[in-house]
Amino acid sequence: MSQIHTCQNCGKQYQGYYCNWCGERLFDNKQRQISVLATNLIESLFNVDGKLLTSIRLFITKPGYLAYQHWRGVRMSYMSPVSFFLIINVIYFLFSPMTDFALPLHNQAMQPYSEWVQPTIDSYLANTEITFEKLAIQYDAISSALAKSLVILSIPFLVPFIWIVNPSRKYYLLDHCVSALYLYSFVLVWPIILGGIMSLLSWSSIDLSPFGITGLGLLLTSYYVYSFFFQVQMYQNTILLSALKSMVILIGIAVSHFIYRFIQFWLVWWQIT
């Protein structure tokens, strides 16, 4: 008869090498060897890398597929939507040619909400001896650092638009949140891919900034096309419905993005003043 062990993690008794209650492995002398640590490290690296590469490939080539699999309950083979979004977030701030999510202070005057923030900026400059240039340096430094952790604020504001066009009761709030995470991941990663393609094709003269008409047009068209195929795959919509719903999703991306910028401005402003 197998020896009965007491789990050091949950305190329950079990037989064999693994606790039946919490899954903790028996930590015997064999588990104290340095080779076990090396083996666990290699297994963890290959497991994470494998899931990441698979998730990225499907995310790019099959819009909506990962969200659909998550809805079906197939989750172990892919990275979790939140982990995937955070990795894409890091990639964006390391390699993106755009500053959309760390908007400089001088661009605040050109935003839809500028009438609410510009008077605050002007009043502060009038009542202090600091110049706009010095203020901008302080603002831009904090904005760039803070933006990395604030992008996820855009997700809750995109979810209502996804829910409005997909109100079926078979989808829960969680499903729409997952869709928003993947859609916004594409918003983050596509400028990097598009910039790389243009560099390879020597189209460096095309402006990818948010104020470049050509670059903005390409980005919006790409977001619409991705949203279209996302609707077809995730929500099983017809082509016509997907085309119409993708327009709403595109509006939702724009609205959530400007709300994010507005919130970011005030969070940065409170820190520098």
Outline the structure in words.
This protein has 273 residues and is mainly alpha-helical. Helices cover 66% and strands 2% of the residues. The protein is built from nine helices and two strands, in the order E-E-H-H-H-H-H-H-H-H-H. It has helices spanning 34-61, 65-72, 81-95, 114-127, 132-150, 154-165, 173-200, 213-234, 239-272; strands at 4-6, 13-15. Strands 1-2 form a two-stranded antiparallel ribbon. A hairpin with a 6-residue loop joins strand 1 and strand 2 (13-15). The longest helix is centred in the C-terminal third of the chain and has 34 residues, at 239-272. It starts with a strand and ends with a helix. The model has no long low-confidence stretch (mean pLDDT 85).
Question: How is this structure best summarized?
Answer:
The protein is mainly alpha-helical and about 270 residues long.
Kindly report the spatial arrangement of strands forming the biggest sheet. Answer: 1-2
Radius of gyration: 24 Å
In sequence order, what are the helices and strands, one letter per element?
A: EEHHHHHHHHH
- Helical content stands at 55-70%
Q: Describe the largest sheet.
A: 2 strands, antiparallel
Determine the mean pLDDT.
85
How would you describe the shape? globular
Number of strands: 2
**Low-pLDDT windows of residues:** none
Question: How many separate helices?
Answer: 9
Q: How big a fraction of the residues is strand?
A: under 5%
Structural class: mainly alpha
N-C termini distance:
71 Å
